Known about the structure:
By secondary structure, the protein is an alpha/beta fold. It is built from nine helices and ten strands. The protein has an eight-stranded mixed beta sheet with strand order 3-2-1-4-5-8-9-10, with helices on both faces. A two-stranded antiparallel ribbon has the order 6-7. Strand 9, helix 7 and strand 10 form a beta-alpha-beta unit. It starts with a strand and ends in a 12-residue tail after the last helix.
Amino acid sequence: MRIALLGGTGDIGQGLALRWAYDTNHEVLIGSREPEKARNKAEEYETELDSRGVDCEIKGFENGMAADRADVVVVAVPPYHVSDTVEAVADRLDDDTILVSPAVGMKGDEDGMHYHRPGAGSVTAVAAGAAPDEVPVVGAFHNLAADRLANLDVELDVDTLVVGDDDGAKETVTMLAEAIEGIRALDAGPVANAAEVESVTPLLINIARHNDGMHDVGVEFK
Length: 222
């Protein structure tokens, strides 16, 4: 399967790119508004993987070109860029493409981080509203610590919650998530439930901030 990470030069994009390239045989594409930046990052990821004995090719493209080539498109950009990014590549998406949103809206103050719920109800809903009607949208990977994900020396033992209105799309994203060693994907229902999932992320950041040794805290449901 071919996976495009739009904004794949950022933290969560880097972590997912490295883990999928390290743990699976799926083809990984890095997207960016600046194609040269995407190519440079792709080379950086290849170098990291080569140092660990993994021979793979990661390609970098402008976001639209990456989306055009992919079966699954992960919109790994900050929440305030999700709508614009999806709209910019909308003509490259079709009903065979699955769009994945891991972004979370947050605001910080002296007390900590707080969930910033957009008018659409969730960032996943924002992505769904910007995508063509025939393109299934799935929310996933919201609550993963990006630094831990990108550190291939660290073993994962975390859950990710998956939301979406298309069962087949959710099954595909669940398969991709669980192809990363140490991640378990749990079905959290339709897109209407995305706000509850996304709001866990600022809670985890606050826990990490106020407790020693929990910088990369994650969630495991038992």
